[in-house]
Amino acid sequence: MAHSSQRGKLLAVIGDEDTVVGFMLGGIGQLNKARKPNYFIVDKNTTTTEIEETFKNFVSRDDIAIVLINQHVAELIRFTVDQHTASTPAVLEIPSKEMPYDPAKDSILNRARGRLSSVPIPSFHD
Fold first, then answer.
1. What's this model's pTM, rounded to 2 decimal places?
2. What's the pLDDT tens digit per position in 62-108?
3. Please, what sign has the CA dihedral across residues 85, 91, 96, 102?
4. Quick one: how far is CA 11 from the chain centroid?
5. Which of 2, 48, 65, 81 is the most buried (most CB within 10 A)?
6. What total number of domains does the chain contain?
7. Range of the domain at 67
């Protein structure tokens, strides 16, 4: 099977407290053998460097198959998110309670759509 190598891998989440806690209540909170968590809460005191380092750490870990990141947080490290071109782990931008999802800002979705068609993705806010 093509996806058998993904069995047993983790979902990671980077986002505001409400988003991360919601996913943790759903059971995603884990520590790897090195006691590193698969979640990161971003608040007003979190630096862009901390977000970027966490993102790079998550996409380089062998035990993570999907990284979820609040879209407004991804905007803070857009260059780094755009540099991730590997299919695994998959990076998905998600809305937060305070910030709705805008597909026009999702560079990963736009990259995928560009490979499939030449139709631009409309914004929900136009």
1. 0.80
2. 999 999 999 999 999 999 999 998 989 999 999 998 888 887 787 77
3. positive
4. 9
5. 81
6. 1
7. 6-116
In this structure, is residue 61 part of a structural domain? yes
Task: Tell me, yes or no, whether 123 lies in a domain.
Answer: no
Alpha carbon distance, N-terminus to C-terminus of the chain: 42
Residue 76 lies inside a defined structural domain of this protein: yes
Which residue in the block uniquely carries the two structure tokens 């990076």?
Answer: 91
Q: Which tens digits make up the pLDDT trace of 100-124?
A: 888 778 777 777 766 666 555 565 5
Higher pLDDT among residues 5 and 7, named by residue: 7
Domain assignment present for residue 125? The answer is no
Which CATH number is 101's domain given? 3.40.50.10580
